[in-house]
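Checklist before submission:
- one chain only
- standard amino acids only
- sequence pasted in full

Submission:
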Amino acid sequence: MKITHGLGALAALVLVTGCGDGELILEGKRLPLRSDLNAPADATEESADPLAPKAVTAAPISLPAAQSNGEWTHRAGNASHTAGHVALGAAPARIWSVNIGQGDDRKHRISADPIIAAGRVFTLDSRSTVTATGTNGERLWQVDLTPSADKSDDASGGGLAYGEGRVYVTTGFGELVALDPQTGAVAWRQRFDAAVGGAPAVADGRVYVVARDASAWAVSASTGKVEWVLPGTPSVSGVMGVSAPAVDARQVVFPFASGQMVAVAKDSGVGLWGAYVAGQRLGRSYASVTDLTGDPVIAGG
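Returned file contents:
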């Protein structure tokens, strides 16, 4: 009998709960969770969404005369990354193609852009092999830069630059290697404390490199000796194939995986200025990656 009374009380409670007042619906306009609260009052819901595509408008542009560039010594053209208005044929067509080594797979990537200097095209494959190809497509030499204590599959990444009569190569093994452009012979090696994911920059007798532990290095182009080191802010969001330092007559600008750009005097490494330039985008997981993959450009002072 006690059980019967208990069930009856429970049923009554459920009945009372079900007969309660309906859900309170607040009055007012519904806005997307990502809407811009600072948008004009007459803005539509679509325009208030920061992820919505922006309207494209035409604008006049004035370019200087196109110039023929006989050499491409850095991944962005030159040490300051200001290639200018480069001439291109009206109807580009393939002249030749060659194999430069190992390509991409699950663990390895080609991150180095080719460079052109001394009448040769220099490339770096996904296994730290550098190839020199003539402008007629003929292979001139090839050298594997894997350290003797490692295997070629152990690391990937790096970049190329040319200057001071040599080819400079950074590798995923954490090395900067100077090569003779005519023969591929190794002039010197400099090992860092971490891998190097981006290309070096060469200017006025120095090679500038950013390692993956957020350290920046200035190395003598002739001897390979370290002249000075600049510590940065470490970051866990580094990627392969990142941007390279930019150099002009006074300064070198280093990009770091933390999203910072730091400018220092190129001779001494004394700090000049710094800025945090990594952007943000709501609703996108890749926005948490702060590494800089676009090269800094020094132009117009």
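Reviewer check: Residues 47 and 55 are 10 Å apart (CA to CA).
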